[in-house]
## 1
Amino acid sequence: MSANIIAIDGPAASGKGTLARKLAESLGFGYLDTGALYRLVGYTILERGGDPANTDEAIEVAEFCRDFFDVNLLQNKELRSDESGQAASKVAVVPKVREALLDLQRNFAKAPGGKAKGAILDGRDIGTVICPDAPVKLYITARDEVRAARRTKELQSRGLDVTKASVLKDMRERDARDAARDTAPMKPADDAIVIDSSDLSPAEMFDKALEIIKERLSV
Ligand code: DC
């Protein structure tokens, strides 16, 4: 049982994933990218030639992913595409999809496995729904333009032919859907510390987060 839980939420391309990964490595904590779970569901539907906006299909595939879950599936590079991200955001509005993925996330938070000294989870509803008692809750955000520029650079570095304008449009659409849904919408928990990463380097973000963590956890 791990009480050392760090919840990191925030919108797309806010820098939360990079931060969570670096913190986990440096603290010896286990890390779960919960967005990858929703991406796995969305991607699997696209692979089957289905429609991520079809509620019944989304539930069926989410339950399938839960029943046959293997952490290695989250390493699939295809999950990182914008198509998988949009599909993830569509399946994520369905309450039964979220329910299917709930235990996986909570079990990881309680027992991140191996010699992990704690757990870091990043997503949209970690501080509000998945781990409401987490002693550390961070909400990482950044200006839209900055986030779009970062995501464009990342996609282009992987050889994808995208423009910043199209990335910005997709990102805004996804953020609006994630924030407006009825179940577990993206928002900072009341007791979350909000960090705007727009004008911070990854190293500055890391230092700031670590300072907060050290005040709350004995790490
Ligand atoms: O963090 P990400 O961009 O990989 O997430 C992809 C989508 O998954 C996101 O647009 C909404 C959904 N998601 C969610 O609803 N709840 C989470 N805890 C994580 C992701």
## 2
Amino acid sequence: MSFNIPKSHPRYESLVKREKIIEGFKNGIVAYAGLIAHGRGEAFDYIIGERSEDFAIIAEKAAILAIKNANNPVFSVNGNVAALAVDEVIELAKLLNMKIEVNLFYRTEERVKKIVREFEERGVKVLGENPDAKIEGLDHARALCTREGIYAADVVLIPLEDGDRTQALRNMGKFVITIDLNPLSRTAKTANITIVDELTRALKNMISFSKGSVEKEILENYSNEEILSMAMKHISSRLSELATSQKEE
Ligand code: ATP
């Protein structure tokens, strides 16, 4: 993949991600709504400062512990996740013994197949092409999942998700971990663990933390309300500092 973005560009990383999403859209992996969701994420990342803050690191470590403690952890992948971070998904899933399931909000069989192929081309088998179960409480296409994967999962890592499905998974008794740059979203508020960090950065951090040891207390003392509050306070203090320095210039 080669984008004509000079590495010296101050927002190089962000622009490469944007190009990956556009390419994913052209290849039929990303849905129209995925383009809009990416823009929402970019806006929050700009405000957060495009780096992994403490609230993200704590949640990433807690998530690893929860996944390691699980009996059937499943990584749920949508179009944006596949377009941005297929290699990181594979590496983390291997390190943490997670199944991978392609699960789409705007499900079309064609898009599912294309995303499944992204994994198969890398020699990795994933679930999702032949759904035989439903997430309870949702209507038809959004509900489809596999019995072996999401339906039977005790812990689900489901980045960039919408609030209804997160709630439906919680109602089924699952422990839900999400990655979402918007600490105000319904998903962020509904999940058990919300990682307020950019998807690729979060997965890279989690890969690196999975290779070392993580202190058990991080999960024992974890409070998602506190993490979301830290994220909102960070956003608010960063904006007021920026506003003050703007006035002084
Ligand atoms: P909700 O239903 O949870 O209130 P929503 O309607 O925004 O939120 P979606 O569009 O399904 O639901 O959610 C996508 C979420 O993912 C958005 O909150 C967006 O900010 C976030 N997001 C988009 N791209 C990224 C990314 N690369 N890394 C992390 N988060 C992202």
## 3
Amino acid sequence: MEIVTTIAAVRDHVRRWRSEGRRIAFVPTMGNLHPGHVSLIEAARKYGDRFVSSIFVNPMQFGPNEDFAHYPRTPTQDERMLADAGCSLMFMPDVIEVYPNGSERATRIEVPGLSRILDGEFRPGHFEGVTTVVAKLFHIVEPDVAVFGEKDFQQLTIIRRMVADLCMPVEVIAAPTVRDSDGLAMSSRNQYLTPEERQVAPRIYQTLLAAAEQLRAGETDFAGIERGGIQALEGAGMRPDYFAVRQAQDLSAPGADTSHLVVLTAARLGKARLIDNVQVKK
Ligand code: PAF
């Protein structure tokens, strides 16, 4: 695996591979890799024959009071994990390489509507930062395929919409959420949990599963399911931001005949803010 830090070096590699007829699969990350990220690279292997992964903690997607400065950065460990997973090229740029004019005044990309609901309501500007950096990374890497985790279901939905709206020639692939044995979705932010909080955190997935079971059984009182979810999370000592039943296609409000639903939640537990979701196909 080669490690590069400049856009020019990424383009050199990718253009050479393309001239050799290679298909390029891309996995963008913010580093501090865990098995969930490795599963994205493994998913990418089905769709390409050269693999690029970026490690970039993107300042634009963090709010002023969020954890940008403290976000875990583990480049040596990331390098080893990517090499072991069969990654061909690791792109680890500095902020100045990605935002030559600074991130605050940089040109932005926003998917209206979708970016302002659910997590967007609680993290203003977050998804604008995500779509802006992902669009930039797509311009730099020019992948045929890009893989994103279903754990960030709203992010995945927004990126799909951006790709469609901007006619980007990238196929977006969703990879299933990877969970610890007790159901907690893997996330770099799980390490903010104390041992006691870590015991409680799987209640998020259990609460989502209980809601999914109600939906599968034909329950259509979505507001009632949402209230029940909030109460269950609060009862477990968390501070939920939302617990929402939506149409999986576009995160709009579901109807009684919606056949593909998603239940999404974000909850604060100690210093961590955890998100998760489950899909229900009827
Ligand atoms: O999901 C993430 O890790 C980030 O939001 C992404 C897609 C790498 C953009 O910074």
## 4
Amino acid sequence: MKSIKVGILGLGTVGGGTANVLQRNAAEITRRAGRDIEVIIASVRDLTRERRCDCSSLHLTTDPAEVVNHPDVDIVVELIGGETQAKDLVLQAIDNGKHVVTANKALIALHGNEIFAAAQEEGVSVLFEAAVAGGISIIKSIREGMAGNRIDLVAGIINGTGNFILTEMRDKGRPFAEVLTEAQALGYAEADPTFDVEGIDAAHKLTILASIAFGIPLQFENVYTEGISELSLTDVAYAEELGYRIKHLGIAKADASGVELRVHPTLIPAKRLIANVNGVMNAVMVRGDAVGNTLHYGAGAGAEPTASAVVADIVDVARTITADPHSRVPHLAFQPDALANLPIKAQDEFKCAYYLRFEVNDVAGVMSQLSAQFADQDISIEAITQKEPQPGDDFVSVIFITQRTLEGRVDRAIKRIEAMQDVRCKTVKIRVEHLN
Ligand code: NDP
Ligand code: HSE
């Protein structure tokens, strides 16, 4: 049978890894796909740059249009990143009747609705397994493996760079900036690393996961997003003392009243499996009414783990290339005309527990004044700790862990507490998820 011809846009970390995996495992991949898969062309910015893959059997160009317009290319693999040029190239490829595989979560989260509509019209596939959680087949698992379930929770560590930074800070006390530089050198970070540390990359991924899990349109603009750049080692240590670990989570929850979409640092009981996912590893918990809790674990970034997901998508396209477009797995798991516009909850409607740290003057009666504010808002307290003042400090830290409550109530209590004379500065608020 005729081989499947692939054109790759971008031969950097993921593109180079993809070309390597396709070459190294060619025989095994052919056995799975039923056809040979051949990379015939790739585009880069700089032809003189050293490549991590053998480019001798393919045509290397600086013109990406050559790839998407190449008459022999069946599958265009977009691995340049960014959104504007990537979107134009992907739409051009679709218009030319080519199937597309991409690892670009920003592209899918921001422009996926338009891209999938165009692909549907052309009868081509757009696959994006590598866009979420690197090498973990989380999209396939939710879209296909859990197709019989009503899913109400997806929660996970979905940014490898952020988890690598948090792990190194906690385990080795290394400074934030130094660990970020290492993550960049290892090829984990985005071209703009603020996407990793400010939670934007995780929000892109959560947008995709929520859409597939709940059957809702992609809506990045509705994801509440906090990064890890404001986290202090003090809170990391206090959380540990209280039996928790701080992880940066993406959380999508659905109930009868709507959907919560949020990305933020979160305290998790230290004994949970997900609290022990370290370094660049990712883990995604998905809860379905039939299967119960599932946990999906693996490398969240890096050349070959990501290439593993890209190549799996290429094989999927190769297998379905002869199938009728209407019989293929829908891009967003649900049929395009069956997507539901569920209401998205505002931040004050979020419901979880909270770690709150106040810095207060060390005078009698402060603790009861703080407690009274929580009682006023009908917030139950799980634990209270007062820390000894640090040498040189004339204030003490008081930490409350609340029971599950509405964020609006917590924010009202914080506002009143921060107005008190004996309260020193801005409150540290970190959400707590018990995930049980
Ligand atoms: P790199 O920066 O390592 O590679 C980008 C490649 O695209 C390079 O080969 C570059 O060329 C080429 N390129 C960039 N801009 C242009 C342009 N305007 N025209 C032509 N070629 C261009 O990025 P990554 O491989 O890390 O990431 C690629 C995509 O994969 C991104 O969407 C990223 O979010 C996603 N991703 C990355 C993961 C990772 O672990 N790194 C994991 C999962 C997804 P040149 O080499 O000449 O500079
Ligand atoms: N920068 C991303 C991360 C790459 O660190 O998770 C994988 O999507």
